[in-house]
Amino acid sequence: MDYKVLYRKYRPNNFENIIDQDFIIKTLKNAINKQKIAHAYIFSGPRGTGKTTTAKVFAKSLNCLNYSESGPCGECDLCKSFAQSPDIIEIDAASNNGVDEIRELINNVKLAPSMSKYKVYIIDEVHMLTANAFNALLLTLEEPPSNVVFILATTNVECIPITILSRCQRFDFHQISLPALVSRLKYVSKEEKIEISDEAITEIANLAEGGMRDALGILDQLSSQYDNISLDIVQNSYNIVGTILIEQLNNAFLTNDYPKIIEIIDEIKAKGYDYKSVAKKIINIFMIMLIANRNEYSSSNISKIKKAILEINQSINDANIYVSPFILLEAIMLATVDSEVAIENSKEDKKVTNNVNRVGENYFPGNNLNHVEIEKNEKIPVVEENKETEVSREDNKNYFPGNNFEESDYEKLKNIRINNCFVNPQKLILEELKEKWNSFVNNINDSQILSVLVDTNVVAASDLYVIITSGSKGTAELVNLNINKVDEVASEYFNKKLKLVAITDEEWIVQKKEYIQNLKNKKTYSLIEEDDIQYIEKENDELADIASEIFSEDKIEFN
């Protein structure tokens, strides 16, 4: 079998051919030129970025008899015998990760090199070693013989004990840039006489996500199936959504075109595209809009784009098995569009038109998307410019962010509910909700409500109010944007009236700290209807009991 896959055939054999890791290569070359060779190195970074390749070139350079600025000569006896040299020991820690293998390595370290200046140990995927194996390696790694060099390669440097890291010179390899990947793919295609369009090469480079091995692997696979590789072939073979479709989606988003957004997302879902690749392409095109074509967009649209980028990026982490991630994408885009339309409409004739209905209790981005016009004589709360408007939750049961209120009113409701939950926190209610919360979420029939509650947790509860948290700011905002429907679903499931409020995990840390501090200062919360939070004094011996009720802690002491 003479055929060799492309990533092996075109693996660099000198420093000049290692692309896009210039700082690392320059440092290693200087170390050789000045004869300042460390006894241990650690190469960390994503897959396919040249860690093992650089380790081999470096090892060959250390022993080359005719080393030059570009790297090993490749002609001397040591270079030609490099692959079979007994002085270059490559170990795959993924399959040789036990203490016995490391002890054998330690025994061999004591032996002098057979024919080379340095004996070099290249340990790949070193993070896979067991704790005992790392401990066994520790002393040898700190004080090896002068003619021994260790090169440790890993894709997960966080798993390496600090005692190991502190004994190595560390080099962090970064993902290979898109232009560098494209340039290398063009070179290999030309050498291999592969007919491929520039657009297809760029798509392959995007698909590889900064890994040269992945890029060459994709090119290798496609070239074995097709004589002429086009953009359509790459996209169809790897189920990649087309750029044109994403541009249409982004344009619909910027023009607040509800039906078009839903139509395109439905088309993307129907074709079975991978969500993460779709989300990344949306973000990439949005970034091009912000950077290359910024002057073409209004400040309002620029703000929308920025918000969408952050929320869609977060949704990649939020996607899970309970809900289609495309529902998150749809909710993010429609909620952002919805907020924009509400602001614009409040500045016009103080009436709601177009296709946004924020009055119905069942409002959620994606529901009631037909063009609905509100009758002129219907009373709709509107905040007029340069006027202060007080809103009572008693008079307006649909009070929640999204009903054409200013941002301060959004925070008002949020703060009121957090405050009122702290008035009389109930440990038993909290434990009950926490115990049943996952079951509640998994049994939600409304997929859109499910999408905003799926990664939330209950952290505090009273007989009426409940505080839930989310790791995503966007998810927390979506819960609060649709709080009436969320309250309704939760109240029905738990068979009691509940009023919820969502905050991020970071906000909860702040609120919890502030709550305990207030108790230490002999202050507790009282039920309010306005923004001014009132406090009343409590006896000090009651404070720990109050705190433990909400935080489920056995003992809380106040100094």
Summarize the structure.
The protein is an alpha/beta fold and 559 residues long. The chain is built from 23 helices and twelve strands. The protein has helices at residues 6-9, 22-33, 51-63, 77-80, 99-109, 131-142, 162-165, 178-192, 198-208, 212-223, 231-237, 243-254, 258-270, 275-291, 299-318, 325-347, 407-423, 427-442, 447-453, 473-481, 483-494, 505-520, 543-551; strands spanning 40-44, 88-92, 119-124, 148-154, 169-172, 195-196, 228-229, 456-461, 465-470, 499-504, 523-525, 535-537.
What this model shows, in words?
The protein is an alpha/beta fold and 559 residues long. The chain has four domains: 167 residues, P-loop containing nucleotide triphosphate hydrolases (Rossmann fold, 3-Layer(aba) Sandwich), CATH 3.40.50; 60 residues, Helicase, Ruva Protein, domain 3 (Orthogonal Bundle); 162 residues, no CATH class; 143 residues, DnaA, N-terminal domain (GMP Synthetase, Chain A, domain 3). It is 49% helix and 10% strand. Strands 2-3-4-1-5 form a five-stranded parallel β-sheet, with helices on one face. Strands 8-9-10 form a three-stranded mixed β-sheet, with helices on both faces. A hairpin with a 3-residue loop joins strand 8 and strand 9. Helix 16 packs across helix 19. It is globular, with a radius of gyration of 31 Å.
